[in-house]
Amino acid sequence: MIAVDVGGTFTDVVAWRDGKILTTKVSTDYTEVAGPVLEGAQLLGVEGSDVFNHASTHGLNAVITRKLPKIGFLTTEGHRDILDMGRVWRPTEAILDPHWRRSFGDASRPIVDRYLRRGIRERLTSDGSVLFELDEEQARAELEVLRRCDVTGVAICLINAYVNPVHEIRLRELVTEVLGDVPCSISSEVSPLAKEYARASTTVIDTLMKIIYTKYSARLGEGLTELGFTGQLNFADCAATLVPASRAMDLPFRIVFSGPAAGTIACAHFGDLIGETDLLCADVGGTSCDISVVTGGAPFVNTSFELEHDLVVNALANDISSIGAGGGSIVAIGQSGEILVGPDSARAQPGPACYGRGGTVPTTTDTCLMIGIIDPEGFAGGELDLDIAASERAFEGLDTDFSLAQRVRYAYEMAVNNMAEGVFNVAIKNGVDPRDYSLVAFGAAGPMLLPAVLDTVHCKQVIVPPNPGLFSAIGLLAADQVFTVNRSAYLLLSPDKAPSIDAVFTEMETQLREQVGDTTAVTFLRSMDAHLVGQSWDTPFVPVPDGVIDADAVATMVTSFHDTYESRSGNRFEAMPVEGVTFRIRAVVETSKIEFPRVPVRGADEPLLPVRTTTLRFLGDIDGGGDGAQEAHVYERSTLRAGDVLPGPTIIDEGLSTTHVGAGQQATVGEYGELIIRRK
Where is each Hydantoinase/oxoprolinase N-terminal domain found (predicted)? Predict the structure, then answer.
């Protein structure tokens, strides 16, 4: 099996063959994204592989940077500004800011410019009946405007179309007649759910992803075939579950956030292997720290997510919080003279000052290089020599009266504190006690920085898994293939509504069986999103029984709702009626998964010896004007054996990552080579 995670800086490639994990990294090229993917596949040998699993931030980065194709948006007349208004929410920090503007609003960087958003004369009522027929002559005139504007795709979201798609289907036919064979998404197929704005934004993202990914997918498939690949090409969705490439291109909005989600699946799979099922997962890269929670071996999944504040996508997604804290986070001086780290990043270009690519400001990577945690001659597997003198010049250039030792020490402490605060906030948001959870540190910079949060967050321990720099890609080899269908239908959960509810589930299950095809290893999981009558917000993922939905099954659904509601809110209102809003079925097809090889125990004639000793500066006492030096042993991770105990301060090097075990801590090597870091 082989998996690829296309990131903003590197394309990570992992293969599992003959019981061994093979890895490589290739620089991402956004002028030809498929090129590095195929290069990595060729390096590891894709011929003979059964599956090729793919995740990417390509579409996500296109949205963030607004390097997007020009598309049109058609909606019911009078609603063309729905994309600009959003849900009229502000982030907490902007509630009192009169200058705040939504990132995708017309006043800033709209996803679709207002002149390309056209109103169509038609109207359906909430029960799906036709109030005003579709005005085809007016619709053709609006499409002519889009044709003259050279749009390359069209998104269609009409009011109440999730109940009755008749007008959207006809409008799509008119799009083909006037504009030709351009990508066109309709909300009744993309996201047949209530709440107009989220349905509209999801449909727009789907159209954009069709344009971005369709040609890319075809190019990738052709390239893999040329390399001798004859297996199944899968794309990961926002919950890091796998979808065959052909199906993924039908609704590509589901794959826009696939890269970060794969790391959570990798943590859940590896945690189950070592008996740790309650995890805080932190993926620290160059720009951000992506944090998620696994409880009882299962990631926390949301029914929607935001690409930017209030830019909603209706897709099942692992709940991931990102903060601007990574190896490239810039060290700066605040207005009060304090040391600040992030959220701005030096990114890959120009990068940290030590990269020698033109960067002149210090970053967290420069901080760790100055301390001595990073080996200047062994960085990135020895492919990049770092310039420590450039890092020192960058720190000396800060406008502050702090000494050099103070600048580096405080920059390190602020970087660690930012990550500790992020991890703690995610734990509190999800209602978990971090003392009961292990913190999984992965990403290229995670093992270097996260062990230091032990004394702040007070989590049980820090786990550094094998190959932490490519751990998200490994997660793609631990995922199941999942097909999902959902429908919105406001139905009171009462015995007389049982036939209507059963009809919804029967229709969805029939659709899923057509998608899955002939396979016996499939499990159908039913759930619903529901609320107490009169509530605006839904309680998601309420279990629904299998089989025919009759009066008894409806009673079970009502009880399940109250149980789920109570577990989430602490309250129970059994006297109030319950209304189902969205009904969902997931078809889970189990797949072969990666197996981590065990690490042998150290023999009596094989002593544990460091490869060298190094001096870590600025971490000890610097108050007396010294440089706070600490002596630390350095080990190569490939030489460690199960059961080895490494007291801190210690540095553990491997090709694409460095682990720092601080003073007062110790690392124990587990049976699969994982590093378990605890306080002494």
Answer: 2-178
Q: Which tokens sit at 315?
A: 């897709």
- Report yes or no on 486 lying in a domain: yes
Stretch 536-560: mean pLDDT: 95
Number of structural domains the chain divides into: 3
E strands along 493-570, which residues? 522-532, 539-543
Q: How far apart are CA 642 and CA 275, in angstroms?
A: 16
164 and 84: one domain? yes
Structure tokens at 179: 């504009």
Beta-carbon contacts of 47 under 8 Å, excluding residues fewer than 6 positions away, are 227, 228, 229
What's the Cα-to-Cα distance from 130 to each of 125, 166, 215, 299, rounded to whole Å?
6, 9, 38, 42
**pLDDT tens figures, 456-470:** 999 999 999 999 988
With 0-12 CB in 10 A as exposed, 13-18 as middle and 19+ as buried, what is 97?
exposed
C-alpha distance from residue 23 to each of 30, 42, 443 (Å): 21, 12, 14
* pLDDT value for 383: 64
Scan for tokens 């207005």, then name that residue.
335
Element (H, E) at 554: helix 551-569
Flag whether 467 is in a domain: no
Q: Provide the pLDDT confidence category of residue 519 given band limits of 50, 70 and 90.
A: low
Q: Report the CATH number that the domain containing residue 577 is assigned in CATH.
A: 3.30.1490
List of E strands, 453-548: 461-464, 481-492, 522-532, 539-543
Among 205, 227, 260, the domain-final residue is 205
> Reading across the β-sheet that carries 184-186, which strands appear in turn?
117-120, 72-76, 154-157, 184-186
Q: So what's the pLDDT on residue 79? A: 96
Query: 421-457: string of b/e by CB count within 10 Å (b at 16+)?
Result: ebbbebbeeeebebeebbbbbbbbbbbbbbbbbbebb
Q: Is the same domain home to 191 and 159?
A: yes
| Same domain, residue pair 509 and 582 | yes
pLDDT of residue 344: 85
Q: How many CA atoms lie within 13 A of 640 on its CB side?
A: 24
Q: Mark whether 175 and 73 lie in a shared domain.
A: yes
Same domain, 626 and 584: no
Question: What are the pLDDT digits (tens) for 557-573?
Answer: 999 999 999 988 889 99
CA distance 415 to 404: 17
Which amino acid is it at 80? Answer: R
pLDDT higher than threshold 70 for residue 381: no
What does DSSP assign to residue 451?
A: G
Confidence class for position 382, pLDDT limits 50, 70, 90: low
Q: What is the per-residue pLDDT for 515?
A: 83
> Strand 461-464 vs strand 675-679: parallel, antiparallel, or unpaired?
antiparallel
- State the residue range of the domain holding 534: 481-589
Answer whether residue 32 is part of any domain.
no
Give CA separation, 506 vs 106, 190, 227, 514, in Å: 42, 19, 42, 13
> Do 576 and 627 fall into the same domain?
no
Structure tokens at 99: 């200058």
For residue 304, which amino acid is it?
S
Q: Which is nearest to 293 in space by CA: 416, 459, 432?
A: 432
Q: Which residues share a beta bridge with 291? A: 282, 321
Pair of tokens at residue 294: 């696994």
